[in-house]
From TrEMBL:
Keywords: Membrane, Transmembrane, Transmembrane helix
Organism: Prochlorothrix hollandica PCC 9006 = CALU 1027
Domain of life of the source: Bacteria
The name this protein goes by in its record: DUF1230 domain-containing protein
Transmembrane segments: 43-65, 71-94, 147-165
A Pfam family hit: CGLD27-like
């Protein structure tokens, strides 16, 4: 960070830039930084692993030999639930940091929950933070939103096709 006449009173771990860098270093949140092919890989593995639970649960409701279409759709949708939760956690973590970087005022705690303070960002820090939001975080959030939309299309397609499945 650049030096200012008034030092930043926000504790290091609560400064939005440091929170952003912490997410970049995080094993879990770093997934969202990956381009689509690399982002799909762990999500696909999680989806496949989730079939170990979703398959037997769906088979208890729809016997695969008699209702194979409903079994497959129910299993696939049930296996998508953990993937959706992972995507939601990624989205919420990055969205929180995005909001903290984009705001001109930083809320922080000096020593506990009872002493909230506000700090007005100087123009150069606000500009830097908003550039990070525009060029780094918003594209990442857009990718995650696209994956949510894909899951929504899957579920909508399943609902619309349900009456026609064997």
């Amino acid at each position: 960070m650049t030096q200012h006449s008034a030092p930043c009173p926000v504790p290091e771990e609560q400064q939005p830039l440091n929170e952003y860098q912490e997410l970049q270093r995080s094993w879990f949140f770093r997934w969202a930084l990956s381009p689509f092919p690399q982002l799909w890989k762990p999500l696909l593995w999680l989806w496949l692993a989730s079939w170990l639970v979703a398959g037997p649960v769906a088979a208890a409701s729809f016997m695969p030999s008699r209702h194979w279409g409903k079994f497959l759709l129910t299993s696939a949708t049930g296996a998508w639930l953990p993937v959706g939760l992972i995507l939601l956690q990624l989205y919420l973590g990055w969205r929180y940091v995005c909001d903290r970087l984009a705001r001109p005022v930083v809320c922080y705690e000096e020593s506990g929950w009872f002493d909230g303070q506000l700090w007005q960002k100087p123009p150069d820090i606000l500009s830097r933070d908003r550039l990070i939001v525009a060029y780094e975080i918003r594209p990442l959030l857009h990718r995650l939103e696209q994956l949510f939309a894909l899951g929504g299309v899957w579920i909508l397609g399943g609902v619309l096709s349900w009456p026609f499945l064997p």
